[in-house]
Amino acid sequence: MATERWNDPIKVGFEEAGARTVNGPFDALACLAEHWPAVRGLKYLKARSACRAALDGRKTVEEARAEFMAAAEEAKLKVH
Q: InterPro entries from the xrefs (predicted)?
């Protein structure tokens, strides 16, 4: 469900798009698709999969959050 939210939103800094606040797996999927750097590794793929699974109820939103954070670290993005 698109209204699922994380307990603690993440602010991510993108070079071209500026800072974005990511509130849950739906927002994370939008960032992964629209703003992510061109180099996309295994953690990016895992984050995308985990966010989709969270929206489908197959994973928790907090599991998706952890995978998104790992992908942001892999991409060397600024996270607050």
A: DUF982 (IPR010385)
Distances (CA, A) of 77 to 4, 12, 14, 37, 57: 23, 7, 7, 9, 28
- pTM, two decimal places: 0.93
Q: What whole-number distance in Å separates Cα of residue 22 and Cα of residue 42?
A: 20
Report d(CA 70, CA 75) in Å as an integer: 9
For residues 64 and 10, is the Cβ–Cβ distance under 8 A?
Answer: no
